[in-house]
Amino acid sequence: MSIPIIDLSQFQISNQVRRQNVVKNIYQACHEIGFMYIQNSGISPDLLEQVFSASKSFFDSPLAVKEQLAWNNEFINTGYVGLEREHLNPNQPGDLKEAFNIKNDIIINNFSSPILLTNNPVISTFYNACTELANTVLQAFALALELPEYFFTTRHNQKNHTLRLLHYPPLQTSPKPGQVRAGEHSDYGSLTLLFQHAVGGLEVQTTRKEWIAAPLIPGMVLVNTGDLMQRWTNHIFCSTKHRVMIPNDERVKKSRYSIAFFCHPNDDTEIACLESCSQRQSPIYPPILAGEYLLSSLQLTY
């Protein structure tokens, strides 16, 4: 099984046949593997490179400087996360990565830091561009599930999303048994936009429990569905396990950078099985508030 490529520009035109074809392909991708590459996302390559440059500058800063912005708790879920601090797979040693979480425009614009990152207008512009792209994908999701087109976007209008800058440093010592760059996990929210840069390593688990590579494809955004979308759709859309392994070649000596945009519903949104998704089987999960689910998931991770 391979990860499909979907041209989103065909969804944004008035031709209903082409638009519906995109909706059909997105449904199939979300149902069968939970991952897809988006072509013609509308996000400027120059803007993306500027964000990667800002990310590299931040992670190149001394540890003492980065720790001035340390992540403190799951309620705020912002700031710097150091090496091995996070266990995406709670049964394995801490992940060999560092990260910086940015929650929303208010936090972006009010961080006081000597580091050229958090109050950088490039970051705010990129956050808003990701929000716009996520909303377009959510519109396609709604149509694929026979819902009003703006069913999901109205439930995401508080911009309760997390932009996460990620750095996987070169390995200086041998890892602990079972330790990887990012442990096997599924994402918590509605959908994730992932931007990779130069060095790959991401793997996706298929329905046959096989791991396949999800490499960087220049100019494309990797999109996957998360746990809350899986709950909403009664497993019609799947939340797929994925991981970042340690390379067994020269890439182990190189830094790996990526950017994830985690799209979450408003905290007070009730996630209950959609009527159009209960026809094949009874609801699998009880209703839950989106904010409650996110908090419980983060508590298991840190």
UniProtKB/TrEMBL annotation:
Q: Name one GO molecular function term.
A: metal ion binding
PROSITE patterns (alphabetical): FE2OG_OXY
Iron in keyword set: yes
Protein's pathway? Antibiotic biosynthesis
Per the UniProt entry, the Enzyme Commission number(s) are 1.14.17.4
The main enzyme category here is oxidoreductase
> Keyword set for this entry?
Iron, Metal-binding, Oxidoreductase
In which domain of life is the source organism classified? Bacteria
Q: Which SUPFAM superfamilies match?
A: Clavaminate synthase-like
The record, for InterPro entries, names:
DIOX_N, IPNS-like_FE2OG_OXY, IPNS-like_sf, Iron_ascorbate_oxido_reductase, Oxoglu/Fe-dep_dioxygenase_dom
Fe2OG dioxygenase domain sequence ranges: 159-265
Q: What's this protein's family per the entry?
A: Belongs to the iron/ascorbate-dependent oxidoreductase family.
Which protein is depicted?
2OG-Fe(II) oxygenase
High-level lineage: Bacteria, Bacillati, Cyanobacteriota, Cyanophyceae, Nostocales
